[in-house]
Amino acid sequence: MAHSEIELSREVVIVNELGLHARSAAKIAEIAQNSKAAVWVKRDAEKADASSIVDILTLACEKGSKITLIIEDKADRPILEDIVNLIETGFGE
Amino acid sequence: MKGTDTQEIIIKGISASPGVCIGKAYLVDREGVEIVEKYHIEEKKRSAETKRFKAAVKKARDELRKIVEKSPKELQHAHILETHIAMLKDKMLYGSTIDVIKNEGVNAEWALKKVVSNLRELFQTMTDPYLRERSGDVVQVADSIMRNLVGAERVNIAAINKRVILVAHDLSPAETSQINLERVMGFITDRGGKASHTGIIARSLEIPAVVGLKRATSSIRSDDLIIIDGNAGNVIIHPTEETLVQYEERKIDYEEYKAVITRESEAPAESVDGIRFEVMGNIELPEEVFALINYGGDGIGLYRTEFQYFNRLDFPSEDELFDKYKDVVEVMDPKPVTIRTLDINGDKALENRVDSDEKNPALGLRAIRYCLKKPDIFKDQLRAILRAAAFGNVRILFPMISTYFEICEANRILDEAAESLEKDGLPYKRDIEIGVMIEVPSAVIMADLIAEKVDFFSIGTNDLIQYSLAIDRGNEQVAHLYQPLDPAIIRMLKHVADVAKEKKIKIFMCGEMAGTPHHIPLLLGMGMDELSMNPQTIPDIKRVIRSLNVADTRSFLQDVLKQKTARSTFDLIKATYGSILSEQLYSG
Questions:
Q1: Residue of higher predicted confidence among B98 and B215
Q2: What are phi and psi of B188, to 5 degrees?
Q3: Cβ of B87 and A26 within 8 Å?
Q4: Helix (H, G, I), strand (E, B) or coil at B196
Q5: Residues A35-84: pLDDT tens digits?
Q6: Contacts with A, B 362-421, CB within 8 Å
Q7: What's the first-to-final CA gap in chain B, in angstroms?
Q8: d(Cα B40, Cα A9) in Å, to the nearest integer?
Q9: Is the peptide bond before B268 cis (omega within 30 degrees of 0)?
Q10: Quick check: B172 and B144 in contact, CB under 8 A?
Q11: What tens digit of pLDDT does each residue of B129-173 get?
Q12: Beta carbons of B91 and A55 less than 8 Å apart
C-alpha cells in the first residue's frame, strides 16, 4: 500500500450510552452502503461489514469500546469521515 | 385444566419496569411462527422459492411502512421501526437466506429459520446485556417475514378496548406502536430481558413490566385475573383474596413513594431549619446533562473534560472544546457549570498507552502539573472555557493543586489566555469564579494561603483519602483500609471547611463521599455549601438533607470529632441518624 494506514483507517470510541445498538448501526450502514469499495468495522480481532446492521451488531460494541473503521479505497475517505463524525457525536442521541 | 382454575400460581421472571398492577389479562399471541417445516426445493424451482421469499419481505416492509406512517413522529417507536425496515434487506439476513435457499435447496421458511438461529447464537455469546438483547430486533424482523411466508394471522392489538395487562410471547416495536397505550396497565412477555423494547416502553410509560417469563403465554388465558409485581419480577395468576389485599397495599405504597420522589426531586434541598444547599451533579459527557436535569440537579459541580483528549492523534482544537462546553453551558444557564481543567497526562492519553513508564502514575506528571509544563495545550483549553463563559454561568476548577506556586501559575496563564482573547477580539468572560480541587494533603495544610487566590474550594475526597491514608483502592490487600470516616479524614475536611469560612470563600465537595447518605449529617455540620455527585443519587441526597436540622448536625460534628476510629464514627452516625438513613428508598 502506497498510502499510510492512517489515511485508510480511523480509530474511534463509542460514546453514546447504549453502544452500537440497532438504530446507531443502521445509521452507519446507511452511510457505508454508498461506498465505492468495502468499509469495515474492526473490534479487536473481529471484523464486520459496515454496510450490514446485523454484522455491526454482532461486534457487541458497548459504550467505551474502541473500534477501527477501515476503508479499502481512498475515494471513500469522505464516507470514513462521516461515520467517524457520527460515532463521535454519539449519533445525536 | 378445570379444577386448577382457582389455584394461585406465581411465575418468576425478570423485572423490566417497576410498579405493581392488578387486572385482567389480554393475550396477544402465541408462538405461532415457531414451528417450521423443512422440505427440499429442486434446483429449477429455487429461483421461484427465492421470489416467494422476496415477496414476503416486501409485504413485511409494506406493513412496517404503514405503521410508521400512522405513528406520531416524536414517538421513539418510529425510529426503531425505520431500523427494522432497514434490517429487512440486511445482507446477513436477506442475503444469507437467499444464499441458503440457493445453495442448500431448502424452503424459504427453513432457510430463514436457519439464518436467524445462527445469528441468535452469535448474539448469545455477548456479555453486554443491552446488546445481547438486540438479537431480539433480528428475531422480530425475521418473525415479520416469517408471518408473511406462512400466512399466519396476528391478533389485532389495535382493537383492545378496555384497560388490560398485555400478555405476549414477545412484543415487537411494530406491535407496541399499534397499541393504544392508555389501555395498557402492564406488560408480560415470555421472551426478553431488562433492556428489551417492552422494558424500554414500559419504563417510559411508567407502568410495570415483567419479561423473560418463558411460560406466561402458556399459563395465562385472556380475562384471567393477574398481578404484576414489577419490583420483584413476579407475576401472580389467579391470586387468592389474601394476596389481592396484600398487593393492593403494595401498589398504594409504591405509588405514594413515586409521587414523593417526582414531586421532591425538583424542589430545593432545604434543611428542617430552613438552610438551602445546592445539590449538583458530576458529568463527563454533554449528553449526561439531561439526566442531571431530570434528577433535579441544581447545577454541574464537576464537568470532567478528559474524554475529548482520549483516542485521537492530535490535541482537540480550541474551537472543538469551545463547542462542547458551550452546549452544556447554554443548556444549564443560569445554573452553574464547574469545568475542571484537564486531569490527566495528555501525551499519554493521545498515545493511548495504558502501561506507563512512570512507576507511580498517581504521584506522577498529571493534571495541573502536566498543564503547567505544556502551557500551550493548557491555554487552548482555558481560552475555550472563557469563551463558553460568555454563554452562561461558568466556573473553572483546577485539579491536583499541591503547592501555592501552582495556583499562582495557573491564574497567571488564565490571565494570559484572557488577554490573548481580548487581542483576537473574541467574545469571552474573565470575571468568573476560580476554584481548586483540594485532593492532596499539602493543599489542606496550605489551604489558608491558597484560599487567597481563589473563589472556592472543591474537595475531591477520592484522591484526598487515597493520598492521606496512603491507600491504593485498587489493591485488594489494602482496599479495606480506605475509610472515608477515618478521624484523620474528618479532621482534614473540617480544617478545609473552617479555612474557607474564615477566608470567606465557598466550600464544595465533589467526591464520592458527597453522594453517600450517611456522610451527609457530617458534611452539613461542617458547612459545605454545595455537594456534587452522580446524577442518579441527587434525589436521595436531597431527601436526606430535607430531613436534617443543620444546627443539630453542628453539635453532632463536635461529638464525631472526639471519635478515635472510623468504626466508632460510623456507629455514632448510625445511633444518631439511623432512623433517617434507614428510611430505605423503595428498591424498584
A1: B98
A2: -135, 125
A3: yes
A4: coil
A5: 999 999 998 888 899 999 888 988 888 888 899 999 998 899 999 999 99
A6: none
A7: 35
A8: 45
A9: no
A10: yes
A11: 666 777 778 888 888 888 888 776 555 566 666 788 999 888 876
A12: yes
At B199, is the pLDDT very low, low, confident or very high (cuts 50, 70, 90)?
confident
- Any bridge partners for residue B278, and if so which? B530
- The cell numbers describing B30, all together, are 402465541
pLDDT band at B407 (very low <50, low <70, confident <90, very high): very high
Task: Determine contact, residues A65/A19, Cβ cutoff 8 Å.
Answer: yes
**Residue scoring higher pLDDT (B72 or B468):** B468
**What is residue B586's DSSP assignment?**
P
Among B68, B90, B94, the residue to mutate for chain A (most A Cβ within 10 A): B90
C-alpha cell at B35: 414451528
B408 is catalytic: no
Question: Between A and B, how many residue pairs show a Cβ–Cβ distance under 8 A?
Answer: 81
Amino acid at B587: S
For residue B48, the one-letter residue type is A
Amino acid residing at B547: S
Q: What is the CATH number of domain A5-92?
A: 3.30.1340.10
Q: Could you say which of B84, B169, B197, B519 is catalytic?
A: B197
Superfamily of domain B43-150 in the CATH hierarchy: PtsI, HPr-binding domain (1.10.274.10)
What pTM was estimated for this model as a whole? 0.54
CATH superfamily of B10-29+155-258: Phosphohistidine domain (3.50.30.10)
- Write down the domain spans for chain A: 5-92
How high is the pLDDT of residue B514?
94
Complex ipTM over 0.85: no
| Domain B267-581 annotated CATH 3.20.20.60 | yes
